C-alpha cells in the first residue's frame, strides 16, 4: 500500500480485507430480488446465473484464505464454515426452478439472506472505530442511496428515485409516515433487511459520535495526568539532587572527622 495514503484512509481500506468475498456477497443481493421480483424468464435466468457467479467468487476467496492460513497451528474455521454454507446456498439458489416459492423454499432463501447479512457484518461493522466516523457516514449515505434505487425498482407505488430515497429513509429511521409503504412481497422483504441494516448503521454512527465526546474527555484527562506526572518527576529529581548534596556534605564532614581523629 502506498505510503502517501493517510493513516485513517489506510485503516478504512483495511476494512475491505476480503474484497473478493465482499463482491460475491453483494452480488447475491440482486440475485435474490431478480428471482423474487422477476416477471419474465430472462430475469429469472439472470438471477440464477448471478447466484452461481456469486458462489464461484466466494469459493475463490475461501480457497485463497485456506491456502494462506493452512500452515497455521491455530486456525479459526468458523468464518470458513459460514462461507461454505453461503456457497452451498448460492449454488442451490442458482438451480433452475419454476413457479412460486413454497414455504420451505421461502425459509431457506430467507435463511441464506440472513447468513449473508451476518457475514457482511463481520467484514465491515466489527472493525469500525471512532476515527472512522466520516467513513461510516459515507457508508450510511451510500446504503441510503442504494436502498432508494432498490425501492424504486421493487415498489410500484414509488414513481421516482427521490420517492425511493424518501421511503428508504423513513424505513431506515423506522419513522413510518405512511405516505409511501411497501406493498409487494419483494419490497416488504427488502424493507425488513433495510430496517435491520438501519438499526446497525444508525447505532454505530451514534456510538461513534458518543465515543468522540468521551475520547475528548479522555484526552483532557490524559493531558492533565501527564502534566501531574511531569510535576512529580521534577519534584523527585529535585529531591534526588538535594539528597546528593546532603550525601556530599555528610561525606565531607566524615572526612574531616576522620582527619581530626587521626591527628589525635
Write the layout of secondary structure elements.
Blueprint: H1 7-14, H2 19-37, H3 41-69, H4 78-93, H5 103-124, H6 133-154, H7 161-172, H8 185-263
Q: Care to describe what's here?
A:
With about 260 residues, this protein is an all-alpha fold. It is built from eight helices and no strands. Helix 4 crosses helix 5. The N and C termini lie far apart (about 80 Å).
> Which secondary-structure class do the elements indicate?
mainly alpha
Secondary-structure element string: HHHHHHHH
Total DSSP helices: 8
Task: Provide the β-strand percentage band.
Answer: under 5%
Average pLDDT, rounded to a whole number, is 78
- DSSP helix fraction: over 70%
* First-residue to last-residue Cα separation: 82 Å
Q: What about the largest sheet?
A: none
